[in-house]
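Handoff note, outgoing to incoming analyst
You'll be picking up this chain. Sequence as last confirmed:
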Amino acid sequence: MKKILFLVSLLALFCTVACDKIDKLLTFYIEDSQSIKVGANFPVGQMPAFLIDVPTRSDETFSNNHTRADLVKNVTLNKLTIDIADPKEENFDFLKSIEIYISTNSNDQVLLAALDNVPTGVSSIELKPSGQQLDSYIKAEKYTLTTKAVIRKVISRDITMTAKSRFKVTADPL
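Most recent structure output, in case you need it:
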């Protein structure tokens, strides 16, 4: 009986210490939205890469979440979806595959998310996050998204899409 009581006490102490450590970490999400316009008459095959500069406003986001950049422990992409915004009746039949890269300069580009074999008949797709550590990109004043895609069929009219990203951030609180 003394052994059981000792083990229960030890387990309770372990849980208390572990819970304190977990409580000291803070997890929140940073969401962003970017507009992407693809012009009509892109030929079938590899689409030229295009770049989008994204201001992060990370200092403000960190402050609103009771932390700061130097306390950030881990940032990963949690979700990235692309929706057709205009024309509403358009779908992703024109797109075969897509890759989106993130960088702060020409030397640090990494894959953010990708989707091979884009389904047809849909107006919204969810890309698969690469799992890369993205701390330095989110802490920067801005980052650049580079989109590379393979076109399945000729695009007959301009298409505007909205890319929505959600980054999971783990940090120590202030």
